[in-house]
Design goal:
Low-confidence stretches: none
Strand content: over 45%
Distance between the termini: 77 Å
Largest sheet: 5 strands, mixed
Number of domains: 1
Number of helices: 2
Helix content: 10-25%
Order of helices and strands: HEEEEHEEEEEEE
Number of strands: 11
Structural class: alpha+beta
Shape: elongated
Length: 143
């Protein structure tokens, strides 16, 4: 029984050390008088409508073959996955903080880290999302 427990514990530890590190980032952006939103993000993203009056972004990050220190540096200190918003008059732009995103290399293992990023952008339901890179607010014609 001790041998089986030891083998099970060893396999669990091995699995944990090779597991991916994950984090979900949420950001909100006020867009009160904005009529158009241009989006220029690195990689793919999804846009969904919601009942809120601001933009909410959800970025799910998974990185394999890295250490917690490297992961923390790129996510929290460098802001590699942050989304930046610029609002000018009636238009807004969303873009990636790090537009290059060069490959991450783990110097301890000399391996390239694999990263998977999934971005969801929730926009107010009065925006038209026919073109995912240029959103336009639908004006109520009854006024």
């Amino acid at each position: 029984m001790r041998i089986i427990s030891f083998v099970f514990f060893t396999l669990c530890c091995f699995h944990v050390t090779n597991a991916q590190l994950t984090k979900v980032l949420h950001q909100t952006f006020e867009i009160d008088s904005v009529q158009t939103i241009s989006i220029d993000l690195v990689g793919e993203y999804e846009i969904e409508k919601w009942a809120g009056n601001n933009i909410l972004t959800e970025t799910k990050i998974e990185i394999y073959e890295t250490t917690p220190g490297i992961f923390k540096y790129f996510v929290e200190e460098k802001g590699r996955y942050d989304i930046v918003a610029e609002v000018k008059d009636i238009s807004a732009s969303l873009f990636s903080n790090d537009s290059e995103r060069k490959a991450i290399k783990n110097k301890e293992t000399d391996k390239e880290c694999f990263e998977f990023i999934k971005v969801k952008i929730f926009v107010p339901d009065d925006f038209n999302i026919d073109d995912p890179s240029q959103l336009v607010r639908v004006v109520d014609s009854e006024n």
